[in-house]
Design a protein that fits this description.
The complex is a heterodimer.
Chain A (H helix, E strand, L loop, with lengths): L1 E10 L2 E11 L4 E5 L6 H9 L6 E6 L2 E2 L5 H8 L2 E4 L11 H12 L4 H14 L15 H13 L5 E5 L7 H18 L2 E6 L2 H7 L2 E6 L2 E6 L1 H4 L5 H7 L3 H10 L1
Parallel strand pairs in A: 3-8, 3-9, 6-7, 7-8
Antiparallel strand pairs in A: 1-2, 1-4, 4-5, 9-10
Chain B lengths: L1 H17 L6 H16 L3 H22 L8 H41 L2 H8 L3 H38 L5 H9 L5 H26 L5 H31 L1
Helix pairs in contact in B: 1-6, 2-6, 3-4, 3-6, 4-6, 4-7, 4-8, 4-9, 6-7, 6-8, 8-9
Classes of the chains: A alpha/beta, B mainly alpha.
Chain lengths: ~250, ~250
């Protein structure tokens, strides 16, 4: 479980996060939604410690994450995996080397064991015969899947995904969403996904937090989101004409 | 002034991170080997070509400036040798490498920053500064002295081949000149300068790349700044080291 309490973050005079509190539960895909520039990515980076919070606390289970030094954070980070918006695969390494990297760095597994683990992770994300390819040779969807494979290579307890569907076609987006949902349940991870994709919301939204202008405006799940009274949330969810038509017809 | 001090401070803080204890020595060893090839071996070509022609030009210029019969001809070889040893093979080659290697390092690390690869390393619990920069520093500090030695040899050979081909000096006189009043300490001086310059090129360029914010435009700017700052630092330390080592 990850709990964030009263998180605030500013860049100069610009207050990006304003007193956000949330609890993210294990075995569930927790979504942070909001329009572009609402502060989702900053919140996610604060949760993983890539940005320091100005105020507030973050706990991983019973461990206070905020205030830990690099070594303290390092121990918790070994249990984290993250899918970055642009995949963030290492350009100079092949697919196999990318996935093997955390294993090389933090385990004492033999070469055979590492290769088995790499192949297991690749198979889990439905990629075969691509071990020797470089990231520049992969499509956008494949890059995301390889990044997921790298993120799960150390059996993490916490998975973070920043805009996993950005730049993908709707069909591939659904494949990625399903994959994240399945892996979360299989590995009983606490998964947090940043998204503004409504298909993801309806596919994976077991717990949803809506952020607007750096403030948490609404919290609920995919069943509750369509019936909410929150004006800002409705403007976000029913932003396109098709969604508005569906809502009107359901009335 | 504030910007300069802030940059200077962040440079030393980055060095603190770079020289902290490596996480896994075997991985750092592999990375260092990769960097030896990328930053060292792949620089041999340019260093050899430039050194050969510079040695040739130094010899020809010395010859045309010492046409007076009171100067013995072997002075051409001696002049070429000392110019190459004292200044060209360490300082000028370092300036050339600041352009080649420095821009390469800054753009590589800068791209890693803007594509979140550095964030990915940090998130895994890897000391990204140490993992990325330390192997580069070790590789250049180890390999650049060899580049300097290659440069000295090819520079002197360039002078010999072109000098004798152009008829400005005989082979015997040139060989006598490069052996005349030879001070072996000059090689030590050149190697010490090379090691310091290699450290400057790698760390200054890495610093520029590591703190890039933005996109490809900023990576390009960081690459240019890396070359400019490395070159200025090399020239500054050239003066300091010359005073310290030759006075």
């Amino acid at each position: 479980m990850i709990s964030a309490e009263h998180i605030s973050k500013s860049f100069g005079d610009r207050e990006v996060l304003k007193d956000i509190s949330a609890v993210f539960e294990p075995g569930k895909t927790n979504l942070i939604i909001g329009k572009s520039g609402s502060g989702k990515t900053v919140f996610l980076k604060c949760l993983v410690g890539l940005l320091e919070v100005d105020e507030g606390t973050i706990r991983y289970d019973d461990i206070m994450f905020t205030g830990l030094d690099f070594r303290g954070k390092k121990e918790i980070r070994k249990e984290m995996g993250m899918l970055f918006q642009g995949s963030a695969l290492f350009d100079s390494m092949t697919v196999e080397e990318n996935i093997r990297f955390p294993l090389d760095m933090f385990t004492s597994m033999s070469s055979e064991e590492k290769l088995d683990r790499v192949n297991f992770c690749l198979k889990r994300v439905n990629i075969v015969n691509s071990n020797s390819l470089f990231p520049s040779e992969l499509s956008g969807g494949m890059k995301k899947r390889v990044a997921i494979a790298r993120a799960i290579s150390l059996n993490p307890r916490f998975l973070f995904c920043d805009e996993p569907n950005s730049g993908l076609d709707p069909k591939t987006s659904i494949v990625i969403d399903e994959l994240i949902g399945e892996i979360t349940v299989e590995m009983n991870m606490t998964t947090i996904v940043n998204t503004h994709d409504m298909n993801s919301v309806m596919e994976n939204g077991e717990k949803i937090i809506f952020i607007e202008e750096g403030e948490k405006c609404w919290e609920g799940n995919k069943n509750e989101i369509l019936k909410s009274d929150c004006r800002l949330l409705n403007e976000f969810v029913f932003a396109n004409a098709l969604a508005r038509q569906l809502k009107d017809s359901s009335k | 002034m504030f910007k300069f001090l802030s940059g200077f401070g962040s440079y030393w803080m980055l060095l603190g991170k770079v020289f902290s204890k490596p996480e896994k020595h075997s991985i750092y060893y592999k990375q260092t080997m990769k960097e030896l090839i990328s930053l060292g071996l792949r620089s041999i070509g340019i260093v050899t070509i430039i050194s050969f022609f510079m040695g040739a030009v130094i010899t020809l210029q010395t010859a045309y400036n010492t046409e007076n019969p009171i100067y013995p001809t072997y002075l051409i070889g001696l002049g070429a040798r000392d110019s190459i040893l004292l200044e060209f093979s360490s300082t000028i080659v370092a300036l050339i490498l600041a352009g080649k290697v420095g821009s390469n390092i800054a753009s590589e690390i800068g791209t890693m920053r803007v594509t979140e690869q550095i964030d990915a390393l940090e998130l895994m619990g890897v000391n990204s500064a140490s993992y990325i920069i330390l192997p580069k520093v070790i590789a250049t500090v180890i390999f650049n002295p060899f580049l300097t030695l290659i440069s000295i040899i090819t520079g002197i050979m360039g002078g010999w081949i072109i000098g004798t081909s152009a008829g400005v000096i005989t082979s015997q006189e040139y060989v006598y000149g490069i052996q005349y009043a030879f001070i072996p300490y000059y090689i030590t001086y050149a190697i010490i300068k090379t090691i310091v310059f290699a450290f400057i090129i790698t760390t200054v360029s890495s610093h520029q790349g590591y703190y890039v914010e933005g996109g490809s435009l900023e990576v390009g700017r960081a690459s240019t700044k890396a070359v400019v700052y490395s070159s200025i630092s090399i020239l500054l330390f050239n003066v300091i080291l010359t005073q310290l080592l030759l006075s």
